[in-house]
Amino acid sequence: xxxxxxxxxxxxxxxxxxxxxxxxxxxxxxxxxxxxxxxxxxxxxxxxxxxxxxxxxxxxxxxxxxx
Length: 67
Known about the structure:
Blueprint: H1 2-31, H2 33-53, H3 55-58
Helix pairs in contact: 1-2
């Protein structure tokens, strides 16, 4: 399950990076640097909160070592 969570995270990060890079310049030009950065912080916080609210992630336990 942890591998699946990691795969989704990597796919989302790698997939959205070019889109965010392409939209950052026009967004700063339209709204200003401060607003764009604040929006990024708020979105990041909301995504982290949503992930922690998901039951499979919140209840994930460490597997003991096999040694």
